[in-house]
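Lecture notes, continued. The same structure-token format from the folding unit now serves as the input rather than the output. Read the line below as a description of shape only.
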């Protein structure tokens, strides 16, 4: 039986890479350590426990992890005199014990399905000085029952499902997160209800493909029903990610339009504008189907902020394929797009496709695409000039403590001077109306109207 008391008083630091699901997993690990008497440190040098929550979607993530772990070797002695370094998340799930070969100063490895056991693994490492690995293949669901250390009091990540069944040809996620597994609806609704009681104003529902929520329980997808139920909890803002185009049903679009708390923002990853490339990617929709879906969403929610993911340089992508992506970006008029250069991941079907395209050509295409995205993002934000938007205050600008920073319902970054006579810190988590007088590519700014609420 592991003696967890050895962790009491130990300090910990968590560094997170990757998606929102990883951020939420980190909050769960942090909450567990808090419950065991550990204390959060603001810097690795002050931590007895250093944890890296990893992502393996792109190749650079591996290089970054190795660099971060290596840097721990040069840290001064920890407060307790013994530092335990742990690696969790997707790289840990993928490589398991193999990581110990390349990372000689790592003491603990835990996979995406094993975060509920972090306390035991760390305690064992402190007690016996050995290296401990736990990488389960099946998700027990125990992680959603763990204590939770939220980074902010006003916003919460709420996982509604784990895993993915889509097997896009370039993606490693189904191999490290497993098959789709939906949480019971009542459990999710009860969690959000409790969060509202605690003062949470905004939630983001998380899943690799939220649109297929409930399908693994033997029914048709029930995401539209879930949106309506969560909307009845009294939470003020509901966002969700990620949303696969092939599963965005008409009833989900209706729920988005009809539930006041669902914010007018949709992240709908297209990945490519070429039907030929989409087929190679195993995305299960064509260019025309995606654009038709965009039209149907905009018909119900005219002002929606549509955002997306795009991969440049998928193996075999021609200039014609790339031009199709550029014209799709122009047609869809995205409010924002996250653009990536294709990264080969061992074990995925796309990794076996040979591609003679020079890296310089791919980089030029990437740069051209970014310019088009910047144009559509700038154009989208112009419609807010002179409008009043309610900003949920997140803190102050990194560049100026006298300027508040927050998010609009359309998930835009908004800047506004701290109202005269007020201190910024007590305003965090409040909503302030901002009259927009400047609209840039990546943010809106203006002056406050009325009092924070």
């Amino acid at each position: 039986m592991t003696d967890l008391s050895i962790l009491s008083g130990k300090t910990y630091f968590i560094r997170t890479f990757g998606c929102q699901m990883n951020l939420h997993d980190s909050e769960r690990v942090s909450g567990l350590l808090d419950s065991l008497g550990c204390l959060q440190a603001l810097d690795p040098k002050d931590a007895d426990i250093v944890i890296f929550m990893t992502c393996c979607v792109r190749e650079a993530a591996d290089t970054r992890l190795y660099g971060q772990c290596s840097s721990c070797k040069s840290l001064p002695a920890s407060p307790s005199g013994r530092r335990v370094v742990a690696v969790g998340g997707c790289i840990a799930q993928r490589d398991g014990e193999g990581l110990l070969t390349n990372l000689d100063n790592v003491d603990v490895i835990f996979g995406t399905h094993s975060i509920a056991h972090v306390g035991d693994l760390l305690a064992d490492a402190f007690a016996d000085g050995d290296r401990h690995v736990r990488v389960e293949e099946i998700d027990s669901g125990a992680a959603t029952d763990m204590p939770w250390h939220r980074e902010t009091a006003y916003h919460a990540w709420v996982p509604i499902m784990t895993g993915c069944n889509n097997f896009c040809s370039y993606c490693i996620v189904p191999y490290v997160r497993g098959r789709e597994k939906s949480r019971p609806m009542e459990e999710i609704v009860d969690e959000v209800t409790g969060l509202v009681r605690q003062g949470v104003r905004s939630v983001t529902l998380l899943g690799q493909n939220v649109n297929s929520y409930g399908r693994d329980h033997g029914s048709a997808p029930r995401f539209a029903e879930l949106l309506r139920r969560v909307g009845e909890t009294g939470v003020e803002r509901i966002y969700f990610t990620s949303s696969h185009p092939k599963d965005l049903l008409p009833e989900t679009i209706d729920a988005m339009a009809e539930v006041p708390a669902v914010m007018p923002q949709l992240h709908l990853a297209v990945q490519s504008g070429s039907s030929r490339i989409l087929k190679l990617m195993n995305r299960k929709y064509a260019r025309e189907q995606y654009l038709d879906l965009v039209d149907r969403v905009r018909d119900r929610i005219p002002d929606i902020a549509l955002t997306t993911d795009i991969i440049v340089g998928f193996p075999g992508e021609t200039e014609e394929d790339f031009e199709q992506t550029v014209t799709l970006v122009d047609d869809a008029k995205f409010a924002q797009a996250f653009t990536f250069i294709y990264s080969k991941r061992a074990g995925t079907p796309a990794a076996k496709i040979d591609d003679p395209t020079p890296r310089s050509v791919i980089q030029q295409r990437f740069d051209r695409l970014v310019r088009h995205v910047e144009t559509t993002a700038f154009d989208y934000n112009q419609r807010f000039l002179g409008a009043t938007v309610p900003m949920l205050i997140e803190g102050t600008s990194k560049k100026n403590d006298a300027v508040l920073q927050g998010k609009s319902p359309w998930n835009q970054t908004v800047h506004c001077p701290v109202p005269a006579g007020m201190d910024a810190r007590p305003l965090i988590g409040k909503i302030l109306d901002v009259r927009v007088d400047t609209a840039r590519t990546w943010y809106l700014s203006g002056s406050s109207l009325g009092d924070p609420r």
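Point for the exam: The radius of gyration is 23 Å.
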